[in-house]
Every structure is written in structure tokens, then in C-alpha cells.
Amino acid sequence: MSETDSILIVEDDKDIAELLKVNLEDLSFQCDTCDRGDQAVTQIANKHYALVVLDLTLPGLNGLEVCKKVREFNPQQPILMLTAKSSELDQIIGLEAGADDYMTKPFSIPALQARVRTRIRRSKSYFQSVINAHDKGESERHVVGDLSIDSTCREVKVHEARLDLTAREFDLLKHFATHPEQVFSRSQLLDCVWGYNHDGYEHTVNSHINRLRTKLQTAVGNNSIIQTVWGVGYKLKTENCFIHH
């Protein structure tokens, strides 16, 4: 079992934590548990986890605060937030804080297992392709205006300065860059970037688009690189878009 197969469960309800641990270990993942937000930040800083399953309500630091602190030192750490709050506003706040995804309690164990399996499988598959490209001396770089998107290194730079994106934000930007001018609905983006499509999770796409636009606005003074096609979805404008191999 390697660290790439490890999951951190951050949950202060011991019964729920044990339930999650048993059912995720059934998928052959090694699971660590933690019941405080401040301790979770320390554990994530000291060990690589394929996924952090993070409860919203925690002692020490709540889930939102944990997300924000983790994003400061590890922007690409995958985080799945669990919340008993199912309102639209609560979901958006969790995503805006830096969570890659969320599930609301109560949830079915099979649904959680499927979500975790999909997330980790896609992550491992992508990173393996990156390793293979490095071994072969291959690289692919997309240039969008002042942005340089290196798929091999999973880096986005603005005039040689690195732009810190979460793993999901990078995947979303890269997906648009490889399909310039193609319009994608929220449903299609959930399929292509998240690897699943469930009713009610369109807020996941909206929040990531908004967060990505904010970072692009700060970095390059332009938040219209990803454009809204009203009533349909989103697209990347083709102006100054190039691909280098």
C-alpha cells in the first residue's frame, strides 16, 4: 500500500468516521482518521493523501478553515467535503472555500464509494500519463493569451510566474484549452472533468468556474477567457490560443 492509496477521513463523529473507514478500506484504500480540523491540517502537510474526506463541522478548525489553510500549501490536494447542510448557499460556500466536491448527509455508502473510486482512479490515471510523458521526453503546452498551460508538469504560468490552481481547477482549464470554442453544458463538464454526473451537482461546476475566473482576473486582468454562453454553458475563446508539442 503506497501513500497514493491513502485517504484521510476528518470526522469528529466517531461512529461515522468508523463507518467511512470500514467501507473505504473495503475498496483497498488505507485510511487514516482525524477528529479535529487543526490536527488535520498538520497531517495533510506531513503526508500525501490521494483524497481528504472532510466534514464541515469540526472542533479546532471547521472544514471551511481547513480547506483554506490546505490550499495555501497544497493547492492540488483533492478534497471531498461532507456536510449535513444541504442548502444551496452552504454548498456554494464549501466549494468556494476550496473543496473539489461535496456530498450532503445523509448519503448512501455505495454512492460515496463510487465517488471516491472515480476521483482516485482519474487522478492516478492522469498522473501516470504525466509520468509516461516525462519518461518519453514528451510535453504538451497550451498558450491562451498570457497563460501557458503545461499538461506534463500540471503547471499554469503567467509570464513565468506560477498560477496556483487546485487539481480540479487545472483539469477544468486544461479541458477548455484542449477544446477551444466548444461549448460545454454543466452536465457535460461533470462527465468530462469530474467523471460523474448527478442531478443537483451543477453548483460544483458553477463554483469552480467562478473561482477559476477570479484567479485569472487577479493574474492577467482578464476573467473573460472562459465565457458564458447563456442558456447553454461555457466555452474558451480561441483568440491567442495555441498548442505546442
TrEMBL record:
* Location of 4-aspartylphosphate modifications: D55
Specify whether Phosphoprotein is a keyword of the entry. yes
One GO term of the biological process aspect: regulation of DNA-templated transcription
Query: Can you cite an annotated GO cellular component?
Result: protein-DNA complex
Database matches in InterPro entries: CheY-like_superfamily (IPR011006), OmpR/PhoB-type_DNA-bd (IPR001867), Sig_transdc_resp-reg_C-effctor (IPR016032), Sig_transdc_resp-reg_receiver (IPR001789), WalR-like (IPR039420), WH-like_DNA-bd_sf (IPR036388)
Which GO MF terms are attached to this record? phosphorelay response regulator activity; transcription cis-regulatory region binding
Which residue intervals define the domain Response regulatory in the entry?
6-120
Cited PANTHER family: REGULATOR OF RPOS, TWO-COMPONENT RESPONSE REGULATOR ORR33
**What protein name applies here?**
Phosphate regulon transcriptional regulatory protein PhoB
Task: Record the organism.
Answer: Aliikangiella marina
